[in-house]
Amino acid sequence: MNKLNINDKAKKKIKIGIIILLITVAILSVALYIGNENVRTFFNRYILKKEVVENNVASIDLSNIENPKIYGYDKYITILSKNILSTYTSSGKKEYEHQISVSEPLFSANNRFLAIAQKNGTNLYLVSGQDLLWEAEIEDEIQKVNVNKNGYVSVITSGSSYKTVIYTFSPAGKELFKTYLSSTSAIDTSISNDNKYLSVVEINTSGTMIQSNIKIISIEKAQNDPTNSVIYTHNAETNKLIVGIEYQDKNRLAILYDDGIYTLYEEKEEQAVSFNEAKVTFSSVDLSNYTVYTIEKSSGLFSSNTQVILRNTDTFKENVYTAPGTLKDIKTHGNNIALNLGSEVHFINTNGWLTKKYVSEKEINDIVLGQSVAGIIYKDKIEIIHL
């Protein structure tokens, strides 16, 4: 055997050894990251750069903006002031302006669409990035607006001879049909991801006990025969209040009750979470294929932490994130969850992983959240976090 062959074999063994060492280090690093909080904190701060601090990110100056109404959607932060809707990117640069006749806005965002309506008014708009897609003026007073991920819009109104009238619009702004409720009030709507169904939460308070129902309407049938378009009615137990609904994939409807979270699929309701079993502080069904609720837990004599439980509405698998201290507020959008801890914000995804941590020197007023951007709101500025 010559010297060249011996050297080649030695080099090959060294390469294999290095590869095995790197794999071992990677496995150990992942295991430590998952299992050790101190290691995870170190990686998040110094390696993965997940921690950002106040005054070290792009911002929007609010000092010269009168009575700003702030919202987040898609990759934008929007500010409504004096009937001008200004749209900013994650760099803090103003990209677009739209003139709209709205002073007290009702917002709803989904995917790349933002629906805006005048509260107790009649003006309605649909925006996407640089485009004001359409505007409409309807007959009744708007109480709530909802947009699905494809741009279909439903609007709950009052003020007519009916208790509630619900308008449904196409992404092009065409009024598809109206839904009339003569004796009940609608409190929420949701349009399915395949644009086939409109679900309406209605409550009846005329009796001694509150009755909540969900009506599922065929959008195709409603355009030809609105009075016979209800294909299913789900009646909640007497005196149980449905607070909100959200369509997720496979036409699965997530339902937020006052005492728990449920799912409705193929006319079968299943309880996901009971609020009677734990001290639940916040809950939401406004996520993509997940529901979220938070439980405050004591971690010592004078300390506590908050468990954030994310539950997949298809598999019922749970992911848990533990936040230090007590939550001030929670915001949800798509796959993002923002946890407001007062002077810190933890941004997590539906897998229960921290994606960003924001640290402030002072109390945070509020948070707005989009698909890939968040705004930390103070009295005089908005700090922008790219997610």
Arrangement of strands in the largest sheet: 1-30-29-28-27
> Which residues form runs of ≥5 with pLDDT under 50?
none
Compute the CA-based radius of gyration. 25 Å
Percent helix range: 10-25%
Instruction: Look at the structure and give the mean pLDDT.
Output: 90
Major sheet size, sense and barrel closure: 5 strands, mixed
Give the N-to-C terminal Cα separation: 58 Å
Q: Proportion of β residues?
A: over 45%
Would you count the extended β strands for me? Answer: 33
Continuous helix count: 3
Report what the structure shows.
By secondary structure, this protein is mostly beta strands. It is 12% helix and 51% strand. The chain is built from three helices and 33 strands. The chain has helices at residues 3-35, 37-47, 219-222; strands at 51-53, 59-61, 69-73, 76-81, 84-88, 94-99, 105-110, 113-118, 123-128, 131-137, 141-147, 153-158, 164-169, 175-181, 185-191, 197-204, 211-218, 230-235, 242-247, 253-257, 260-265, 268-274, 280-284, 290-298, 304-312, 318-324, 329-333, 336-340, 344-349, 354-359, 366-369, 373-377, 381-386. The strands form eight sheets. It has a five-stranded mixed sheet. Strands 2-33-32-31 form a four-stranded antiparallel sheet, with no helix packed on it. α1 (3-35) crosses α2 (37-47).
Describe this structure in a few short sentences.
The chain is mainly beta and 387 residues long. It has helices spanning 3-35, 37-47, 219-222, and strands spanning 51-53, 59-61, 69-73, 76-81, 84-88, 94-99, 105-110, 113-118, 123-128, 131-137, 141-147, 153-158, 164-169, 175-181, 185-191, 197-204, 211-218, 230-235, 242-247, 253-257, 260-265, 268-274, 280-284, 290-298, 304-312, 318-324, 329-333, 336-340, 344-349, 354-359, 366-369, 373-377, 381-386.
